[in-house]
Structure formats: C-alpha cells, structure tokens
Amino acid sequence: MADSRRYRVGYALLPKKQQSFIQDSLVSLCRDRGIDLVPIDLRRPLIDQGPFDCLLHKLYGDDWSRQLDDFRRYYPDATVIDSPESISRLHNRISMLQVRIHVVVSVVAARFGIPKQIVIYDKETLSDSRSWDLLKFPVIAKPLIADGSAKSHKMSLIFNHDGLDKLKPPIVLQEFVNHGGVIFKVYVVGDYVQCVKRKSLPDVIPGSISSESSMPFSQVSNITTPQRNNDDDDDDDMMQLDGTEMPPQSFVVDLARGLRSATKLHLFNFDVIRDSTRENKYLVIDINYFPGYAKMPGYERVLIDFLWDVVSERKRTTVDQMAVAAVTTTAAGGNRPAAAAVGVEENGVSPRQQVMLGCEDEAVRNIAVTNSGCSTSTDNCIDGEDQKEKSPILQV
C-alpha cells in the first residue's frame, strides 16, 4: 500500500539564502512527494516549532547551537542536517582542507592534493621572509575565517613581496597554481554528485603580469597575458569552457564520497582545479557548506530525492527499532532495552555510504614556522578559538 503520510521538513535559513534556495518549483515538487517544507520562525524558540521529520539549516552562533541541542534532545528521532560541529570545521581555511589527508581515492588515473599554503597570524610573522620563503609568487591571500560573510570573500592575488605589506592578518597565503582558467565545482547532496565547469582566474605567465604588487580578485581577470588580452569577450570564455575536458567521473565521485565521510556532511560543494604543469593532478582549493544549489542544473529533483531518502530512511529505522524492541522484549521478559537498529547513521554517515579512508601516497607535512626557522609539528588541526596562540602552519 502506498505511503499516504506527509512529512514535515523545517528549514532555518537567512532571508537571502531562503530566497535563492526555496523556489516555488522546489516547494511544489516536494508537496507532490508528500513533503511539506516549513519555514522556521527565527523570532521563536526552535523547540516550540516541532515536530519535524528533518531539519535543514544554515545558521551559526552559540545561541543557534544551543537551540539545536535542545531540539535534538526533545526530538531525538528528527534528522538534523547538518551538525554544527561538522559545519564549523569549514569556517577555518586551514582545518577545512586538512580533511583531505583522511581521504584516499581508488582511481589510479588521477591524483589529488591541496596547494601549498601558510597561515599568518600577525604582522611580525608576515614581515619575516623566513615565514613564507617556501611559497612561490604569485600567491592568493584569503581571510582565515570562511563564514560566508562579505569580508571572508575578499581575496587578492599577490605578485611580489611588496604586495604582502597591504595584507591584514590573520590570513592564509596559498600558492597560485596555473589551471587553464577553469575551475570544477562539485556539488554533493547525500549520495548524489554533480561536477560543473566554471570560469576561473586566468593563468599567470612570469614576466607578463602587471606592475601592480597585488590585485583584488575582481580585477585579476583584466591581467594581460600571451593567452589573454583585454579585448577578450564572453564568447572566448565560453569556447575555453567548452574545450576543457572534465575530470574522470569515477574520480570525482570517489573524491566526493571520501570528503563526505571525512567531513560528516550531507550538503556541500568543493572547488577543484587541474594543475596545468602536472598531468592528471587535481587540487582541492575550497569546501563550502550548503552552497547555492539553485546554480546546479536540475537541483529541485536532486534535493527532493535526497529529502525523501532521509525521511523514508528515518521511517524504516523507526520500524526496525520497534521490531527489534518487540523481539527483545519478548525474549527478555519485557525489561530488556532494545538493541540498536542495523544501518542507523553514525555521525551523519550511513555505514553503507562510508568509504575506506587513509592517507594519500603523497605525504602531507605540517611545518610550524617561527621567527627562528621551521620545525616539524604534529598539530593537524587549528581550532578557531585558539588560532591566535598557534604558530603559522605550512602544508607542503
């Protein structure tokens, strides 16, 4: 018999995010599948607005985390996507990319890594050339905190030492890698993976860049190189995109599932570039939680299928737990606690979706840079709360 029950999926999003994500087409298709999308009133306590079968959110802060904790205690069967603990790791551009050391890709035709990068916490370290002498110019300067604010998106391309003087720590310096002016954005929605091509920064040819010591990203596209001049137009960009070969699909899916398991996230995307100087070498340069899915072709049906899997899996798990409880109670005289249902998600990842994790063949060394030089460090993660006490970390 067909399932006639309706499922409630709450969503807590800022107005701008809500406007782009909650389209009429998504609401209508969800309704047809028996899923009602319910907006969370941010002026009221979350716990008073349940119950929900599933809760989607992209809000931050201590108060919201406390509300989520209260909600999960009061409604333990509801699925919250995703946990604040997992999301917060992406708010630091160092800890964000360190998840890649836990991912192994089985596709031998392609390799992946991250660009060399260093985090600078103060002006003194920035002025000490020994802190960044292992990086080659140009470098990309990014704010350390990646919380989705306008400030976190202010990035610059630094061409020489003079450009460093304009920077305000804490910042991340990431070595720029020529990649043909094309970036691959990989969208992940549960088990679903889609890779699309987008225009990126043009390649930088030594000796052909402008006399500027630094340049905001918004102006980098105006760089004149032998491959690009100021008369280029959108048609040239489209031809460049059309002529760019996509990464192997098996590699993209393998990498996406590995990152999903390492981050313990269901909704995210990541940016990948292909190193123009090394054959089949891909670099992960950014990971974003709950990205702009409306930019992904056919996002509505992808999200609906994902939400249906979540609520129907929740229903199956509840039925399985009830069945186990009934059998256990009968066998033990009614007082024995029910056993855990097989297949229940742990830390947001179903056992059937977990992939084998490990270290990539190309080792990642973490080097703590101090004023006296470099020393080996075993510190693998930088927490936002104690970042001021940390020494800069260089990954090579």
UniProtKB/TrEMBL annotation:
Single annotated GO MF: inositol-3,4,5,6-tetrakisphosphate 1-kinase activity
Gene Ontology annotations for the cellular component aspect, listed alphabetically: cytoplasm
Transmembrane segments: none
EC number: 2.7.1.134, 2.7.1.159
Superkingdom of origin: Eukaryota
Cofactor dependency: Mg(2+)
Region (Disordered): 212-237
Reactions this protein catalyses: 1D-myo-inositol 1,3,4-trisphosphate + ATP = 1D-myo-inositol 1,3,4,6-tetrakisphosphate + ADP + H(+); 1D-myo-inositol 1,3,4-trisphosphate + ATP = 1D-myo-inositol 1,3,4,5-tetrakisphosphate + ADP + H(+); 1D-myo-inositol 3,4,6-trisphosphate + ATP = 1D-myo-inositol 1,3,4,6-tetrakisphosphate + ADP + H(+); 1D-myo-inositol 3,4,5,6-tetrakisphosphate + ATP = 1D-myo-inositol 1,3,4,5,6-pentakisphosphate + ADP + H(+)
The Inositol-tetrakisphosphate 1-kinase N-terminal domain, residue ranges: 8-87
Comp. bias (Polar residues): 212-228
Ranges for domain Inositol 1,3,4-trisphosphate 5/6-kinase ATP-grasp: 110-309
Uppermost EC category: transferase
InterPro entries (UniProt xref): Inositol_tetrakis-P_1-kinase, InsP(3)kin_ATP-grasp, ITPK1_N
Alphabetized UniProt keyword annotations: ATP-binding, Kinase, Magnesium, Metal-binding, Nucleotide-binding, Transferase
GO biological process assignments: inositol trisphosphate metabolic process
Alphabetized PANTHER family for the sequence: INOSITOL-TETRAKISPHOSPHATE 1-KINASE, INOSITOL-TETRAKISPHOSPHATE 1-KINASE 1
Family: Belongs to the ITPK1 family.
Assembly with partners or alone: Monomer.
The name this protein goes by in its record: Inositol-tetrakisphosphate 1-kinase 1
Organism per entry: Linum tenue
Lineage start: Eukaryota, Viridiplantae, Streptophyta, Embryophyta, Tracheophyta
